[in-house]
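Hi support team,

I'm opening this ticket because the web form for multi-chain structure prediction keeps timing out on my end. I have pasted the exact lines I submitted so you can reproduce it. The total is 742 residues across two entries, so I didn't expect it to be a heavy job. Is there a limit I'm missing, or should I split the entries? Thanks in advance, R.K.
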Amino acid sequence: MDQALTGTFELQKQAGQARAARLKTARGWLQTPVFMPVGTKATVKGMLPEELRELGAQIVLGNTYHLHLRPGEETIQRLGGLHKFMNWPHPILTDSGGFQVFSLSQLTKVKEEGVEFRSHLDGGKHFLSPETSMQIQMALGADIIMAFDECLKYPATDDEIKTSMDMTHRWLIRSKNTMTRQESLLFGIVQGGLEFALRRTSLEQITSVDLPGYALGGFSVGEPIELMHKLVQEVAPLMPQHKPRYLMGVGTPLDLVLAVDAGMDMFDCVMPTRVARNGTLFTWHGRVSIKRTEFKEDANPLDPECSCYTCQNYSRAYLRHLFMSGEILSARLNTIHNLHFYLTLMNRMREAILENRWETFRNHCLTRFVN
Amino acid sequence: MDQALTGTFELQKQAGQARAARLKTARGWLQTPVFMPVGTKATVKGMLPEELRELGAQIVLGNTYHLHLRPGEETIQRLGGLHKFMNWPHPILTDSGGFQVFSLSQLTKVKEEGVEFRSHLDGGKHFLSPETSMQIQMALGADIIMAFDECLKYPATDDEIKTSMDMTHRWLIRSKNTMTRQESLLFGIVQGGLEFALRRTSLEQITSVDLPGYALGGFSVGEPIELMHKLVQEVAPLMPQHKPRYLMGVGTPLDLVLAVDAGMDMFDCVMPTRVARNGTLFTWHGRVSIKRTEFKEDANPLDPECSCYTCQNYSRAYLRHLFMSGEILSARLNTIHNLHFYLTLMNRMREAILENRWETFRNHCLTRFVN
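Hello R.K., no limit was hit. The queue was backed up. Here is the completed structure from your submission:
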């Protein structure tokens, strides 16, 4: 029998900074590096849970902000929790709601106590704080819960960043003090903008609180991508070695390879699912827009190297036709392909690390992927 | 080995006018009564072919008008035909394009030669005639091909109807003369408006041409539903006994039961798929709008009697949430349920006829379904 405690994190292999590891959640082990498909509103857009599982998804992400507004965490709790609600019996990570409060809602007022905001749906007043965010995430029944943090807009001054990350630190302590759900793992979020010195200070603040995992937040806010790469490369190795490291909201295949190379373990991003719906598909030879006129009568699969259901059963011509016709099946087949690509990429990275050929595989990816 | 010729129609059992039968197509037998899900643009909206098959779909319908405009029948032909294009290796029926020319396109000019119209997509000029409609349907590779007919708007005068149905008769002869594809079965379409006398005349005209099947067209154009019921009841028994009888574009569960009772065998309708996307679901206790506020925290399946994937795995509350959130999965789960309902209804009608309990089953349905 598997006796490991929830939260156990085992490093299995290291190659430079890159790591293969596993994390025990209340609903089983996660093999890392791991990509978490985003299920914002209790569904990964267009996909059935069984399909996600078949593609190799180990864990999905749910959004606290969206689920709080609709249908509400109390409703989901009364219905048996988020896992049961969305028919996904495997691990779920919920974010804190912070990122969406700052990016989606209006008339946001930030105070030490928390954040007052108006719903982007109906303008209704809401309040999120470390305490309410934890309560919502516990009510949802998430296996991994993110501390409530402030996400600053980019660019911000050093003073703004310092003031904000100090509050994020105090909010983390309040988040931890509110956490009463034994089965859930609380992760803290390092902020600190895009300069190494401030990031390091935030890292020290956040890791001074003992937690089962730590994340880097505050990216994907419009900063130059090279800045993010550089900072992750500098900061990741300073994060606790024996805890999972989660890079929030990132990124492209190239971003993922570079971040794994820097020592990050966990990732989430709407990119594969969102761009799929816009007709952009990932292949080992780069991104492809399915709209291209040259595909009109192309009988080949999108990616002849790909073993996904879409590539095994449909031509580029059919995928183009579905997209041009605005058919729901276009979103489905494209999403299947892109998630298959991301999840396969993560698997291959993990295998390469475990089989002592990380550097070769990484270099292979770096010659093929461009941002 | 199954030696029956394509087009063979075997009556298996009759109960009053209701019939259980089977029709041999180039891609296997159809067990009737049969409902054909509508795959307008080479996809039944939101569904994979494997899912349709699992739900019990025997045959799907493709729309000549839409496929001619996009991606074009020549493209589909060069890609190996419609079956291969959409990954559906089972029978396909295509309509003639007539209905859409009259309902969707603009600046339509009807002449003896054919119909000139402008595409509803880009305003481009197109021409459909008995000859071009047959050529398109043959290029698509349909197993059942519909003759090109004129669909009059409702209401129309007797003179308009007479003139139109005479032309439909001449167009049928031209359709038949153009048909060179041995594997495809050509069905003629009876028009004649909503008066019995004219319908009977059209029926005589159309059935004077020897064909493997006959259809009733010109319904679902805005006429009072009782008129349609009455007319089908009067006309169906006059249609050739040993040929399949297809009621085009109809209808609700009640319509289907009444039409089977009148002696019709084949049906297609966008209703189960279209209303699914609008949140209306069919159950054995009537139609249900999934939006209803009372479902907000309802943990029950939509229909506790239903064995479909949706009802087996999701609550009313979740279905409502997906619909209110405009999620793709809402369309998928609702479509699965509605098609399961329609296909199960057809199966049960067939079984009831075969098992000598048609009248009981029909009456059971009539007490439960309302239009």
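A quick check on our side: Chain A has one domain: 9-270. Let us know if the file doesn't open in your viewer.
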